[in-house]
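Quick illustration for those who missed Monday's session on complexes.
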Amino acid sequence: MSPSKRPQIVTDVVEVTEADGERHAAFVTEGDEPALAIDDPRLDPFRPDPDVVKLYVSRNMPNGQTDVDYLMRQWRKRRNVSLVGDTQGGKTMLVSVLACRIGEELGIGMPVPIFLLSASNGITDFDLFGQVTAWTDPDTGRECLVWLPGICSLAAKVGGILYLDEMNMMLERVTSSINPMADWRRTFINRNKAVRVDGDGFMPEVVKLNPLTWLVGTMNPGYRGAGPLNQAFANRFKTFDWKYNESVERKLIPNEAVRALGDALRQARALGTIKTPVGTAALMEMSNDVAEDGVEMGIYVLRSMMESEDDKLKLDEIIEARSFRHLLNNAAQGAHPLAGSGEDALNEDDPFG
Ligand SMILES: Nc1ncnc2c1ncn2[C@@H]1O[C@H](COP(=O)(O)OP(=O)(O)O)[C@@H](O)[C@H]1O
Ligand SMILES: [Mg+2]
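Prediction with adenosine-5'-diphosphate bound:
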């Protein structure tokens, strides 16, 4: 896109006088500046790496379709969806894969941007809707006021995915601001942004969602500080349980004893005896650690990840009680993990040792 065709964000320059009498140039923006096109290179920082598609292992939905094929059908209807599951189960990765698939379907030759609103960091209206902020022109050193768009405003204007991560951590104040965007109105009122109207003054900006904008949320049911999601908001999303998936993990975690240990730890967590969630990624890591650096290293890293001393002790107990050292070792050596102890297994390099 040539510079002359760039959307004009700044529409007017005025002078402002500060309390100390100093005068600055200030920029004034209009409410209806043209949006960036969904394939604008300036949105590239919001696009996921397309290689994620090669790394992602799909799960099957109950209708037999892969998760990606099924969720693409939801995208075509712009049905808001939310995925509910513990940490490190591939939710964020899946959203990135979907961004790639949507880009393909739109024929833009690149993933659509993902506008991330991360609830665990705390969200203000400024994050959602934008704010006026000071900006120093690097060429002139001159400071001026500019309008910095919010994540919702960007998603609304550009299209792409508005990704509400950990949305059960959002305060009701925030979800109620997003509500009108998430239902048939597909509109929101930008209370922070003044738009000049004919006659006498200004109004808040009313933003209509781009037809391409799609809302996707994820929720982590076990998170500290996360209450049940505000019902009015939750009802606006089609919700899917996103537990750790056995057949996905069989492909990603070659060491079957690591998978068995993962199951044991998750059962302990379901019973409340440990608190630390053990995600798919942690088990992938352990499987690699065991293969590269041996069983003790694998256990040490997993143990380090446990959030409390109690959980570490409980892990030790599970490992001892069920002879996981032997199982892990056997599985790493390619023997059936239940076949004898690691010490008994035949060492091909030193069969008489
Ligand atoms: N289905 C999957 N396919 C490939 N890798 C996965 C999958 N699920 C989880 N992972 C691994 O786990 C990591 C964390 O996944 P992530 O998407 O961040 O989980 P979540 O958002 O559910 O916390 C990924 O970077 C990847 O290494
Ligand atoms: Mg995530």
